[in-house]
Known about the structure:
This protein is α/β, with parallel strands linked by helices. It has two domains: 10-233, Spore Coat Polysaccharide Biosynthesis Protein SpsA, Chain A; 238-306. It is 47% helix and 11% strand. It is built from ten helices and seven strands. It has helices at residues 23-34, 54-63, 79-89, 109-116, 134-152, 168-171, 184-190, 215-233, 238-266, 274-306, and strands at 10-16, 41-47, 68-72, 94-97, 122-126, 164-167, 195-199. Strands 3-2-1-4-6-5-7 form a seven-stranded mixed beta sheet, sandwiched between helices. Strand 2 (41-47), helix 2 and strand 3 (68-72) form a beta-alpha-beta unit. Helix 9 packs antiparallel against helix 10 (274-306).
Amino acid sequence: MNTEQKTYDLSLVIPVYNESDNIEPLAGMIDASLKNTTLNYEVIFIDDGSDDGSCEILKKTCNSHTNYKLIRFRKNFGQTAAIAAGFDYATGKIIITLDSDLQNDPKDIPALLKKMDEGYDVVSGWRSKRQDNMITRNIPSAIANWIIGIATGVKLHDYGCTLKAYRREIIKDVCLYGELHRFIPALASFEGASIGEMPVKHHARIHGKSKYNLSKTWRVLLDLLTVSFLRRYQTRPLHIFGRIGLTSFFIGFVISAFLTFQKLIYHIQLANRPLLILGVLLLLTGIQLISLGIVAEMQTRTYFESQKRPIYRIKEIIENQG
């Protein structure tokens, strides 16, 4: 965590992985887009284990700017880890993330800030005219955005756009791991953040290779299960495990009672009845799920109590000072 005293109005967090040809042009575009503003800003590059010479260029760029900073990872940890590190070391009141491949346009930064002035805590960029391959990128992304919107309750056109703006007091409570950087607006909304969206420019990649492939779509869907669970049951896991467990136990109990009745009244043999195995299996499954729910409930309480973290978020407190 950053312990320096100097703070900024704005922090730009930029993950970098093998983008040697794009770094210097990006720095020039950032300075050009913000030079006419009164904002005091910092730029934080996170080198995510690049092996193409990006690190040397980043060092040179940061040495020539007093407000630039480089965080260098020991190896490639992924975009989520890079963004999380940027959040940890950023000191700006507003934090903006953007890609280092020049597909996001820094000229959109003032517009994002203006949108935040409307009262939003998070403003997400929407690549309405996306310059990517229709089959491998645009269509899978559109389907994923639709599914994510339904599952999380936060409907955005473009979850995958890295260009987003966050208020620092909101984002500091959002914990990132896995591939959850795509879900930051949804995670922030669980903390009570108001979410906005606006169209932003999107340019075709000129230098370097895309780090995206279709295999990441499956990771997104798996992480979506985590986010959906956090949305509904983060503070009450027993409600989901207990509900399923009680249902399983009840059905198993009914089956077992029915078979017991047949055995005692009609002396029917049960040893070769598959229904007996099903009934016992449902009973045991129900007991296990209820037990799992209780353990998860205890872990949840330990998590919140050990960190003294409240299960609510206060936007403001109004008092009569008279």
